[in-house]
Amino acid sequence: MGELLDYTGIAVREEDGRFSVIVPDFIIGGNPIGFGVWGHTLEDAIESAKDMLDAVLSDILENGEALPQSNRYTKKQLMDIMNLYSSPNGKMPEAMIAFPLYFQLPGSMHH
């Protein structure tokens, strides 16, 4: 088994009631790369984020690129990140939930 990577996902309840997900470690140049996922429920949004993480990281590995570093965030850092993604009228999201997203790196096969 390979190493288990642990990324932080942030689910935000939008004004229309849907949940969208941001993964801060995938924000490059102020833009979230590979993540534009949402769901009608929190569970749907988290499941979509897991699927997207698997797809994005698998592509990165296949292309031989470096994986984004997994960071730990304080509550203040998470709030600062969310300020960047507040609605156009400057309103902060109604609800914000941070959760772990795991990705199992393929390990070397021993025979």
Describe this structure in words.
The protein has 111 residues and is α+β, with helices and mostly antiparallel strands. It has a single domain, classed as Double Stranded RNA Binding Domain (2-Layer Sandwich), CATH 3.30.160. The protein has two helices and six strands; from the N terminus they run E-E-E-E-E-H-H-E. The strands form two sheets. It has a four-stranded antiparallel beta sheet, with helices on one face. A two-stranded antiparallel sheet has the order 3-4. A hairpin with a 5-residue loop joins strand 1 and strand 2. The longest helix has 21 residues. It is globular, with a radius of gyration of 15 Å.
Topology summary:
Elements: E1 4-13, E2 19-22, E3 27-28, E4 31-32, E5 37-39, H1 42-62, H2 75-84, E6 95-104
Antiparallel strand pairs: 1-2, 1-6, 2-5, 3-4
Task: Explain briefly what this protein structure is.
This protein has a single domain, classed as 2-Layer Sandwich (Double Stranded RNA Binding Domain). The chain has two helices and six strands, in the order E-E-E-E-E-H-H-E.
Indicate the mean pLDDT: 81
Q: Gyration radius, to the nearest Å?
A: 15 Å
**Helicity range:** 25-40%
What is the chain-wise order of helices and strands?
EEEEEHHE
Beta-strand fraction estimate: 25-35%
Distance between the termini: 13 Å
Q: Order of strands in the sheet with the most strands?
A: 5-2-1-6
